[in-house]
Backbone:
């Protein structure tokens, strides 16, 4: 098997087009899936080809640690700050079935004393506890699942990683209820913007919702969009690797063809559609190790794995990331006519041991969450995380509606979940675990994205909880 493509990148940089996976699965599953959704091949395949890239492979290709601080202070985020920007009412709503015109609805009802409960619960502080309740969907029942994340379908036989639920210390995380979610989002538009990890969450949500309702694709060249008709609820996905404007023309001493990241300009792919969104979930992180020149006010101010030694470099990857996050969040919050709820999902931890993705790094054999003592500190990830929190704090200080920005703080909880990645089970090749490349190394593993079903489904339970807080009167 050819492991590396033309550009020296693994052949799985481009996962199979979602349309063909979906279409094949619809055919093979016939009656089971047909009533759930009507797929239009045309719309999905018209999606921007860049969205087909698996970001981190592309980005990690240039990963060099030259810009990482050898030591240095990692900005600390206090629990107090997190509680205010990611708080969730200490409420476990009951899901009530209502029948209207022969149709059953699931509606969330708060306990009557809710108004009196002032206590806040940080749903992101807690621990993983063993719980053998069924996953919210199966590989067989989700036509939306990319092959790269279909761990059982790719031969992963252990299933213990599915038997853990996140338990916030001071409250419960309500199990996802698709019908109640749809009811909560009736008439609204939810957008996911970011890279392939964001796509991972979007696909998981689609899998969760397609268990209870059907959706129709109504996207175009610029975004994927699914409409849940009976609810007039739309889910949109837009690809944006860095959240800021990208160009390739030469600027000053930064040559043509090199990626230029304009740290002070919001990605126009985001601004173009902002007013449409009622809820926006966004994130960025895994593309930053890629070679790029950083531009502020039209001038070259820094770069990643690239520099012209004649000048002083002001922004390395970490500083550049910090500026970009502030730019993106502040521009979004201040955007005219945008009144949506903005949710920044924090850095998604990867778990390579014994090397990087392309030098034999592995997460093979992880079958349960890590113990506290096994957690590995990663100063790069810690710093990105701290910059995200700083950017949210700063964005919340501007503008009348600035409080409508929240943090989905998954980083710590998911640092335990080394067991939740596809690892070697990123494709169907039955020999993938024993295979060795010419250099004697096994083929690259995916210890970055998350298996579906799997722990990533919890992100959508966090989302469900956050939306309840926002939209239940
Ligand atoms: C789903 O996973 C099972 C193993 O649990 C596997 O046998 C089956 O082929 C998978 N189906 C698909 C459509 O990937
Ligand atoms: C397991 O999780 C389910 C769904 O979240 C919950 O209803 C149930 O109470 C949990 N069981 C235990 C033993 O915690
Ligand atoms: C940096 O760029 C300037 C202007 O293009 C050029 O004159 C100089 O030779 C470059 N220095 C290096 C080390 O490439
Ligand atoms: C930029 O890339 C294009 C296409 O790959 C190539 O034809 C062109 O020569 C490149 N230009 C520079 C300045 O490297
Ligand atoms: C703030 O939000 C309210 C309610 O959503 C809206 O009416 C108002 O126009 C918003 N203000 C700005 C400056 O966007």
Residues:
């Amino acid at each position: 098997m050819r492991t590396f493509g033309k550009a020296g990148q693994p052949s799985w940089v481009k996962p199979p087009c979602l349309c063909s996976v979906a279409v094949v699965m619809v055919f093979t599953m016939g009656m089971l899936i047909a009533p759930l959704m009507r797929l239009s091949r045309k719309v999905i395949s018209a999606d921007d080809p860049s969205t087909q890239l698996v970001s981190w492979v592309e980005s990690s290709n240039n990963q060099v640690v030259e810009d990482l601080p050898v030591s240095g202070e990692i900005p600390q985020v206090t629990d107090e700050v997190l509680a205010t920007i990611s708080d969730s009412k200490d409420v476990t709503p009951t899901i009530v079935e209502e029948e209207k015109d022969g149709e059953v609805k699931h509606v969330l009802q708060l306990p009557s004393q809710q108004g009196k409960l002032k206590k806040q619960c940080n749903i992101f502080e807690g621990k993983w506890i063993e719980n053998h309740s069924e996953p919210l969907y199966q590989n067989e029942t989700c036509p939306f699942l990319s092959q790269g994340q279909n761990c059982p379908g790719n031969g992963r036989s252990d299933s213990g990683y599915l038997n853990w639920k996140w338990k916030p210390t001071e409250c419960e995380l309500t199990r996802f209820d698709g019908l109640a979610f749809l009811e909560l989002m009736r008439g609204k538009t939810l957008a996911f913007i970011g890279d392939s990890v964001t796509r991972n969450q979007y696909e998981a949500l689609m899998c969760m919702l397609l268990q209870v309702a059907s959706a129709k694709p109504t996207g175009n060249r610029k975004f994927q969009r699914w409409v849940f008709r009976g609810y007039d609820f739309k889910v949109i996905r837009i690809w944006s690797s860095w959240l800021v404007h990208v160009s390739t023309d030469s600027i000053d001493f930064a040559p043509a063809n090199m990626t230029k990241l304009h740290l002070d300009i919001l990605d126009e792919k985001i601004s173009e559609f902002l007013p449409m969104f009622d809820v926006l979930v966004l994130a960025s992180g895994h593309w930053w190790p890629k070679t790029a020149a950083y531009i502020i006010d039209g001038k070259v101010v820094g770069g990643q794995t690239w520099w012209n030694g004649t000048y002083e470099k002001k922004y390395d990857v970490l500083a550049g990331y910090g500026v970009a996050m502030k730019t993106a969040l502040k521009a979004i919050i201040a955007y005219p006519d945008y009144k949506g709820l903005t949710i920044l999902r924090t850095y998604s931890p990867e778990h390579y041991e014994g090397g990087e993705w392309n030098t034999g790094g592995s997460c093979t054999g992880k079958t349960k969450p890590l113990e506290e003592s096994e957690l590995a500190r990663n100063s790069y990830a810690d710093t990105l995380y701290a910059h995200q929190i700083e950017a949210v704090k700063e964005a919340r200080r501007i503008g009348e509606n600035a409080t409508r920005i929240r943090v989905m703080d998954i980083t710590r909880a998911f640092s335990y979940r080394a067991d939740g990645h596809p690892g070697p089970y990123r494709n169907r090749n039955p020999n993938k675990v024993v295979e060795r490349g010419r250099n004697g190394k096994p083929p690259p593993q995916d210890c970055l994205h998350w298996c579906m079903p799997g722990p990533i489904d919890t992100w959508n339970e966090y989302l469900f909880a956050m939306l309840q807080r926002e939209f239940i009167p």
